[in-house]
Amino acid sequence: MSEAVAVRYPTPAVVRTADVAAKGMLVLLLLLVVIDPDGSNLRNKAAEARAIGYPLISFTVPVIWLLAWKERASFPWVPDLLVTLTCFTDILGNRMDLYDSIVWFDDLMHFVNTGLIAATVILLTLHHSASRIRVVERALAVGATSAIVWELAEFYAFISGGAEHAFAYEDTLGDLALGTLGSVVAGLAIHALWRSGQLRESAPQLGR
Asked: What is the spatial distance between Cα 83 and Cα 113, in angstroms, rounded to a whole number?
């Protein structure tokens, strides 16, 4: 039986640099969160959970690659950058007090970050020849699930019993809708890029 040959594509240096820089800055910001939650504007906003969970999330792709993909695929820099950005932008947004100072910033983060998570999974699990409907199905499955999980975590972390409890229902519905919409937009964007011959180096796929 012949062995499948891995397809390896070079990733632009700017993507690799951005990924490493985002991870480094994320770790630095999380250290500041642990040292001074007030300075990071995360007092009573699950600062400890973020400090533990975000490194686990942002280093998931490297760990999986080392354990399962290293021998058959080059490192998926683009998906790794996308998932790192979801954590980094949330911490940076809180650090800069954007969630409280810009009324629509939270909505933007739900739309963009859920889309980035969906995009990460699509790039890692689907071949670039996948049909549009299959890509959208994967985007919806990942995006809707991610949005629900985040809202549950958010509710139990700093909404339940707090001042935001009175309007949490309306806010949650809006966040779920934005997250789901963001995932669909991300899926359509990736499919369009694949059709134009781009991003085909992102997923650890074997030659077909």
From this structure: 8
Task: Give the Å distances, CA to CA, from 207 to 46, 72, 142.
Answer: 43, 10, 25
- In whole angstroms, give the CA distance from residue 70 to residue 195: 27
Rounded Cα distance, 9 and 12, in Å: 10
Which tokens hold the place of 164? 């935001």
pLDDT above 70: residue 192: yes
CA 132 to chain centre: 21
pLDDT at 169 over 60: no
- Contacting residues for 44 by C-beta, under 8 A, at least 6 apart: 158, 162
Which one, of 33, 10, 14, lies nearest residue 22 by Cα? Answer: 14
pTM reported for the whole predicted model: 0.85
Selection from 131-135, 161-165, 175-179, 200-204 with the highest mean pLDDT:
131-135
Question: What are 105's two structure tokens?
Answer: 């910033």
Q: Can you give the pLDDT at residue 1? A: 39
